[in-house]
Specification:
Oligomer: single chain
Distance between the termini: 80 Å
Helix content: 25-40%
Number of helices: 15
Radius of gyration: 36 Å
Strand order of the largest sheet: 15-16-17-18-19-20
Length: 525
């Protein structure tokens, strides 16, 4: 049985990359990420420019500014870091069905973020494991999360390999099972992130590398240092028990940002939303999903919370359409106070595809149809675009709507009227189309037009309305329609009359018994 293969994507300074992902204009500047806003805050991540200037992690912000006065500092944002970690999982799932985020570390490795993914059989898709590692690194770079990619037999070994190249970003390294022992032996034990007590004891014993640790007897170490050392030895050997990588089923994606200062105008808020929507669309495309609806969360000054939902008539990945929908919603209902933070959430839905026909030309792209439906709903309003549906009621003006969904398979070609056989020809009879009386078509008027009607012996005798006016020459009816008698608010009792008026119009009159109102709700053409 072949040895399992696990890939690891490691971002050593995730707080810094999360900030640069949200603010790409800061890339290339001397930037540090600090734990708080005061001068005594600790530096948790350093850009390459600041590192060259002599600034290192663990220093205070005041010390860093004394070294480089033009230094730019940003407070670590949990929202940006959480979105960056979730993006790592999206990147992994774009290449493998099984993936899992690495647990958060403490101490020296607190700033790192990593994801593990199943790399079994990737050679058939990417020609080699090195090609798979390069594709993973390229997708991470495209999402502004550059890191180290490694392949090994277990998660622990893959993480150790990635940590050994943490000072060289954009590195890819494939470690075969036969080379693992020789590669791990000279690595320092600090890469295993041991417990402080165990690390101090091993330092007193003069144990500094993986080789030194494996040369000592397990039983003697366990008697002196406890059972924790046994787990550390298994990790150093690459034989630690690991659960299989899961298949994540969650499709909910969230992007958030804490603003440096409150925003009280819609125009600058639109720039923030543009970046959030762009990042959501990129993450959805990685998963092969589309945006079904957007949930907007605004935290305002004074502890206020504004949550709203923007629905879409069809899933889409067009950021321009999503931004216009969100902007229109904010223009209709502006926030009541300046905004301090913004969050966007969406539930990804599969992108609709179309099965091609072998004997028919290709139809329009389903994605183009979804984009058109979203733009129509943006112009007409939410809930006003869809397909008509017959409701379960007898009310003559009832109308229902459902989401528009074209048939999955192309419909068969319908026969033209000229192609259909003439049933009268079988009996030798010839019909003249002009001899068949034409049936008048009723054109409904929505909303109905109010009318003044004079009644004579229970039937309309004179009508005055915006549609027709004059004496009633011929009248038919009434035809009564009732329903929902159990509801005082929704019950209806309607009497309809077909009337020919002296001005030449043939109309349909309606008398609403619940409102005691006459209306013209149709005209015959």
């Amino acid at each position: 049985m072949p040895s399992p293969r696990i890939a690891c994507l490691l971002v050593p300074d995730l707080p810094l990359q999360a900030e640069l992902r949200a603010h790409p204009e800061l890339r290339g500047e001397a930037l540090v990420i600090v734990s708080g806003p005061d001068a005594r805050a600790e530096v948790v991540a350093v850009s390459e420019t600041a590192r060259v200037a002599g600034i290192h992690r663990g220093a205070s912000l005041a010390q860093a500014r004394s070294i480089f006065p033009m230094l730019r500092a940003r407070v670590a944002s949990p929202a940006l870091e959480r979105a960056a970690r979730d993006t790592l999982l999206d990147i992994a799932l774009s290449l493998s069905p099984r993936a899992a985020l690495g647990p958060r570390s403490a101490g020296f490795f607190a700033a790192e973020g990593c994801v593990f993914l199943d790399a079994n059989g990737v050679g058939s898709l990417f020609h080699s494991e090195a090609g798979f590692a390069s594709a993973l690194a390229e997708r991470a770079q495209r999402q502004n999360l550059p890191g180290v990619v490694s392949l090994a037999s277990t998660r622990t070994v893959a993480l150790l390999v990635a940590r050994s190249f943490a000072d060289r970003p954009d590195t890819t390294y494939v470690l075969s099972p036969a080379q693992e022992r020789a590669f791990l032996d000279p690595l320092p034990l600090d890469l295993l992130d041991p417990d402080d007590r165990v690390a101090q004891a091993l330092t007193r014993f003069g144990v500094r590398t993986v080789r030194d640790l494996l040369c000592l007897p397990r039983r003697a170490l366990a008697q002196r240092l406890g059972s924790e050392i046994l787990e550390l030895i298994d990790r150093a050997r690459g034989t630690a028990t690991e659960s299989p990588l899961p298949e994540p089923a969650l499709t909910r994606i969230e992007e958030a940002m804490d603003l440096e200062s409150p925003i009280d105008c819609l125009e600058p808020l639109g720039f923030v939303l543009r970046g959030l929507i762009s990042r959501i669309a990129e993450r959805l495309s990685l998963r092969g999903l589309a945006c079904g609806s957007l949930e907007i969360g605004l935290r305002t000054e004074g502890g206020g919370r504004d949550v709203r939902r923007v629905g879409l008539s069809a899933p889409t990945l067009d950021g321009r359409v999503l931004l216009r929908l969100v902007s229109l919603d904010l223009e209709r209902h502006p926030p009541e106070a300046p905004v301090e933070s913004v969050s966007l959430q969406t539930e990804g839905v599969p992108i609709r595809t179309d099965q091609l026909d072998l004997f028919a030309p290709r139809g329009p792209d389903p994605a183009a149809l979804d984009r058109t439906l979203s733009e129509l709903e943006m112009l007409c309003g939410e809930g006003r675009v869809g397909a008509p549906e017959v409701p379960d009621t007898h009310h003559p003006t009832a109308f229902a709507q459902k989401p528009f969904s074209p048939p999955a398979s192309p419909t068969t070609r319908r026969s033209r009227p000229s192609d259909l056989p003439d049933p009268a020809a079988r009996f030798g009879v010839s019909l003249d189309p002009t001899s068949i009386p034409a049936t008048p078509a009723l054109r409904a008027i929505r909303p109905p037009v109010c009318a003044e009607v004079r009644v004579d012996r229970g039937l309309p005798a004179f009508v005055r309305s915006a549609v027709s006016q004059g004496d009633v020459i011929v009248v038919s009816g009434p035809w009564r329609t009732t329903g929902k008698w159990w509801s005082p608010e929704d019950r209806f009792v309607l009497d309809h009359f077909d009337a020919q008026i002296s001005d030449g119009c043939v109309i349909r009159l309606c008398f609403d018994w619940t409102k005691r109102l006459w209306q013209v709700d149709g005209i015959y053409d």
